Task: structure prediction
Amino acid sequence: MDQIKIGVAGCRGRMGTLVVQEILSGAWKGVELAGGSVAPNESLSGDCFLTHDPQELIDRSDVLIDFTMPEATRRLVWLAAKAHKPCIIGTTGLTPADEKEIVDAAREAPVLYAPNMSAGITLLSALVEQASAALGPDWDIEIFEAHHRAKIDAPSGTALALGRAAAKGREDEGRKSFVFDRNGAAGPRTKNEIGFSVARGGDVTGDHTVFFYGAGERLELTHRATDRTLFARGALRAALWLIHRPPGLYNMRDVLGLI
Ligand SMILES: NC(=O)c1ccc[n+]([C@@H]2O[C@H](COP(=O)([O-])OP(=O)(O)OC[C@H]3O[C@@H](n4cnc5c(N)ncnc54)[C@H](OP(=O)(O)O)[C@@H]3O)[C@@H](O)[C@H]2O)c1
Result:
């Protein structure tokens, strides 16, 4: 069987570099590096095929992996859809309008969009939804996350996604129950709120805990990331899964077989 050719958009970025390293490590049988794209201002000299033009990368790839920036992602996903090539999107910070474009593109080709490619976080999210539904509204839900000192957004997108999973378990789809700020005379906790707390420091890759506080007992579900390579491995696992799917929009729960 032919090798599956993987094109890596943003291949010189932190995540793109890790995806390329994983492909070249030999740990993934049946895959090869088709090449990578770099930002227009970057040089094209390197050890593999490099281009500024996403169409060139798409033409030589069986599947694309994208960890770039929203503007680059928007262009890539449309061109990949037109070429009927599967595309894995790991870029975060996409607007609702961008996400709508992804939904439209997924009518033409398989697209997997996952702001967190970790298998552990994907399972945690499913467990949080299940726990929230099973324990019911009498249990108070709080979410804690910690990241390295350089992280600029808070709470993390993953913490917010865990909050949405908890709210969904209670059949509350919105963010209206989220509480981000308790300071001074904050008053007692309201019944349905989901509180977020954040720590920043050192080189923490990413810790997330969802607490369920009941009467006389509590449940704590924790995930700790120790190495960003896990996201690259998740993206490759997703790529090998996606290549066999029909057009549609998928996420990491689909890859893990969790519905
Ligand atoms: N889904 C997940 O599990 C997951 C995990 C980690 C990170 N992420 C997300 O992935 C994205 C990238 O993260 P990162 O840490 O790798 O950031 P990064 O180091 O800044 O990498 C982004 C790369 O994309 C390049 N780029 C920008 N425009 C491009 C274009 N038009 N064509 C090709 N390449 C282009 C950038 O080049 P220049 O630097 O020259 O602009 C940079 O090398 C972020 O949105 C991050 O939040 C997702």
